[in-house]
């Protein structure tokens, strides 16, 4: 758990700088049923699904944090064109698509 916290904090700081977000953002790890991650736009809290994140998988962790912070930056929960443009400008489309596929696989593994 220590290793993953350190990684989360590192990626969080990088993402905040990248997006120009000055607000305090808190990241919590908790088990969730259907989502890989979520964000509270008002409170600035990012929730990561404990069952999905893997301390060894920085690409996935990075994707989830950048995804949720893109919602926060745009103050929108929707996956609009602007949303994907912003996200892909930061992490690249290919890496994002690979991470999304990984998430789907992880959910399948958990359910089996
Ligand atoms: Zn989203």
Tell me what the structure shows.
With 112 residues, the protein is of the alpha+beta class. It has a single domain, classed as Metalloproteases ("zincins"), catalytic domain (Zincin-like), CATH 3.30.2010. The protein is built from four helices and three strands; from the N terminus they run αβββααα. A three-stranded mixed beta sheet has the order 1-3-2, with helices on one face. β2 and β3 form a beta hairpin. α2 packs across α4. The longest helix has 19 residues. It starts with a helix and ends with a helix. The chain binds zinc ion (ZN). The site of zinc ion (ZN) has 3 residues, from α2. The site of zinc ion has 3 residues, from α2.
List the helices and strands and how they pair.
Elements lengths: L1 H18 L6 E5 L6 E4 L4 E5 L8 H17 L6 H11 L1 H19 L1
Parallel strand pairs: 1-3
Antiparallel strand pairs: 2-3
Low-confidence stretches: none
- The helix-and-strand class reads alpha+beta
Strand order in space, largest sheet: 1-3-2
CATH architecture: 2-Layer Sandwich
Q: CATH class, anyone?
A: Alpha Beta
Number of strands: 3
Ligand inventory reads: zinc ion
Q: Quick check: average pLDDT?
A: 95
> Which percent band covers the strand fraction?
5-15%
Taking the sheet with the most strands, its summary is: 3 strands, mixed
What is the assigned CATH homologous superfamily? Metalloproteases ("zincins"), catalytic domain
Helix content: 55-70%
Q: Helix count?
A: 4
Shape: globular
CATH fold-level topology = Zincin-like
Gyration radius from CA atoms, angstroms: 13 Å
């Amino acid at each position: 758990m220590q290793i993953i916290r350190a990684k989360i904090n590192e990626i969080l700081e990088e993402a905040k700088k990248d997006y120009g977000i000055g607000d305090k953002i808190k990241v919590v790890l908790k088990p969730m049923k259907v989502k890989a991650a979520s964000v509270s736009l008002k409170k600035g809290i990012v929730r990561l699904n404990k069952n999905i994140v893997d301390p060894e998988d920085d690409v996935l962790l990075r994707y989830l944090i950048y995804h949720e912070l893109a919602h926060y930056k745009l103050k929108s929960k929707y996956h609009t064109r602007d949303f994907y443009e912003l996200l892909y400008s930061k992490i690249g489309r290919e890496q994002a698509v690979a991470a999304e596929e990984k998430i789907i696989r992880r959910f399948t593994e958990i359910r089996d």
